[in-house]
């Protein structure tokens, strides 16, 4: 089984992200030996939320501008949800650019809940099979997605999930996709 020891994952978020959708997957990725880098619009700490209540603040490692200038340093992307986060981040051109670069390079991308809005705005979901928070299904269908109501959906290197309750299934699906990507990279 492939190790995730040398895997670098960019986590894209701004203020208003659903905290458990960042911390749950990040913790599980760290257990597997992966490294994570928190990427945001500014270098100021960003505010997590527990649904509609403020949670913790998290230090930012890089800006979208910095990360988009060197997308090759990342092996994968993780996009947590949260309505406020997802609505703001989709309007960030450099976040969209980073997403497109990762899709173009065939790198794994994992998205949960409302995080799919960024993928829609980046124009990378047409023809994909995905899930999301139920209120996004019309947006995804209108963007050309086959939307399904499942805990975790894997479509190639894209992993999507609906909500915080699905995080265990989401984590395992994402780790499975990452392991396959590492095995493919190591065979080259």
Automatic annotation (TrEMBL):
Pfam families: DJ-1_PfpI. InterPro entries: C56_PfpI-like (IPR006286), Class_I_gatase-like (IPR029062), DJ-1/PfpI (IPR002818). Gene3D superfamilies: 3.40.50.880. The lineage of its organism: Bacteria, Pseudomonadati, Pseudomonadota, Betaproteobacteria, Burkholderiales. Its EC number is 3.1.2.-. Residues 9-175 form the DJ-1/PfpI domain. Coiled coil: none annotated. The keyword Hydrolase applies. This is Protein/nucleic acid deglycase 2.
